[in-house]
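Data availability (excerpt). The following record was deposited with the supplementary files.
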Amino acid sequence: MDKQLLELLVCPLCKGPLELKRSESAQELICYADRLAYPIRDGIPLMLENEARAIDPETETRPEARTTRHLNP
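Predicted structure:
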């Protein structure tokens, strides 16, 4: 995923920032505000709500949120 393109893309629902998540099998753009993960297929982000999958806020949080969550019970 091109870094410049990533900086331009926003969530189509809330217009908030997206975070690139890479795994061995897939790439996704994550909107933590809407709890949606937009897939990237063949290098093309599919920015449609019906293509997105819901993410679990308990298991898929921003890395910095995981560390601060433990500091503030």
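Summary of structural features: The longest helix spans residues 63-71.
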